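Q: Hi! First time doing this. I have a protein sequence and I read that you can turn it into a structure. Is that right? Here it is:
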Amino acid sequence: MDYQNINAETIDQWVKDGWTWGIPVSHEECERAARGDWSVLLTPNKAVPMEWFGGLKGKKVLGLASGGGQQMPLFAAAGAICTVLDYSEKQLESERMVAEREGYDIQIIRADMTKPLPFADESFDLIFHPVSNCYVEQVKPIFKECYRILKDGGVLLAGLDNGVNYLFDNDEKMLLNTLPFNPLQHAEQMKQLVETDSGVQFSHTLDEQIGGQLEAGFILTHIQEDTNEEGNLKDHNIPTYVATRAVKRNDLQPCRLL
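A: Yes, that's right. Below is the predicted 3D structure, encoded as structure tokens:
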């Protein structure tokens, strides 16, 4: 099964239907960003702390699975040189639309992040990678590719799903599944996804996701937990997401904020 094509088609339809993560930023938001007033999300609710970025002016930034015209326009307004990679045509259409509206250059690439990334070694200063690993079966190769294409001292900002959401029914009140959640191996789990028009999704452990970053060679510098946007789990303040900041250090010397 080519599940990545299913996910691209599913997200395209979500965008057409008004998906929250597919609504581009406004011209007014871009104007504020040019004055230094901006914030972005890696996870549903908590803004990424500004100190995680350092200065963006002149930095080469990759938005990995970050299409939709939500983050790259703000980074461009802050002076970054931006590239975005996504597998959803509709998300990339939004990137083109905002770039044309605001008058900045951006490299826009449609590619599958489960394959080797189409960039040379040490191409970027920062990678911004919102929650999207839940749509791929194997995450460790993605972190290895991120390490490869970052410059020494480069920063990976990643949003991660901790898997808790996959345990519960739609009302988030009854335990329905055991982990790991992998619909390619469990027909009943695939049935749940089909019935809710959720594409093909997978749970991942923090061993895979944070451990995968460390295995790739990154040094973890910051971590921030977050909840769902709404629902029973949020009402009980149960963390379901994690945002991480990690740095590539070839020399393994103590790192500093960039």
